Amino acid sequence: MMTPPRRVVTGHDSSGRAIVLSDAPPPRVLTNAAQPGLAFHEIWNTRTTPAPISAQEDEPTWLHDGTAPPRNGTVIRIVDIPPEGDGAPDLDSDAASAVLASVGLDAPGAKPHGRHPLMHRTRSIDYGIVLEGEIVLMLDDDDVVLRAGDIVVQRGTIHAWNNRSDAICRIAFILVDGVFDPALSSSLDL
């Protein structure tokens, strides 16, 4: 397992001066025994746009479940994806469904019988920044190799992440709630 990311959260004291509210690893990390090494480090989320800025803030990572952001909200997380070899992880349909459910993808849009057992879709625009390692973005017919420093803009497509290397890949994801255009949604398996 990789070192947990450091999360620094700022805020304001009673006189409006900038302060550090928290400087520690994120308090919520999602894992699943069916895919050892997979870790979703929940950094922060917002539940509205524009997001309210207050002096003190409740811990939002305990207030939202699911991979996709809340309606009109955002999510930032760091995901550690373990090596899988040249193929998809050896997960039967039940195990794949359990992994998807453990990270909040048990809703419509998950596609456990696609090219990869963890194929899924979220109704969001996702900015993925590879921090360490290498990963393959799998789409319906295409594979794209991404390495540290690469950025992907994932726009509501069915996809999976396949780590074909021999080391954990760490990716930062920022997800922004989205709405499918009616012309596009009529052609998608939603």
Structure commentary:
- This protein is mostly beta strands and 190 residues long.
- The mean pLDDT is 87.
- It is globular.
- A hairpin with a 5-residue loop joins strand 1 and strand 2.
- The strands form 3 sheets. Strands 3-4-5-11-6-9 form a 6-stranded antiparallel sheet, with no helix packed on it.
- Helix content is 7%, strand content 36%.
Fill in the keyword field for this structure.
190 residues; mainly beta; 2 helices; globular
How do you describe this structure in short?
With 190 residues, the chain is mainly beta.
Strand content: 35-45%
Work out the radius of gyration.
17 Å
Order of helices and strands: EEEEEHEEEEEEH
Q: How many strand elements?
A: 11
- Arithmetic mean pLDDT: 87
End-to-end CA span: 34 Å
Helix content: under 10%
Using the alpha-carbon principal axes, give the shape.
globular
Assembly annotation? single chain
Q: What profile does the largest beta sheet have?
A: 6 strands, antiparallel
Task: State the helix count.
Answer: 2
Taking strands numbered 1, 2, ... along the chain, how are they ordered across the largest sheet? 3-4-5-11-6-9
Please state the structural category.
Answer: mainly beta
Low-confidence stretches: none
Produce the secondary structure layout.
Elements lengths: L6 E6 L5 E7 L3 E3 L8 E8 L27 E8 L11 H10 L21 E9 L1 E5 L4 E5 L3 E5 L4 E3 L6 E9 L4 H4 L5
Antiparallel strand pairs: 1-2, 3-4, 4-5, 5-11, 6-9, 6-11, 7-8, 7-10
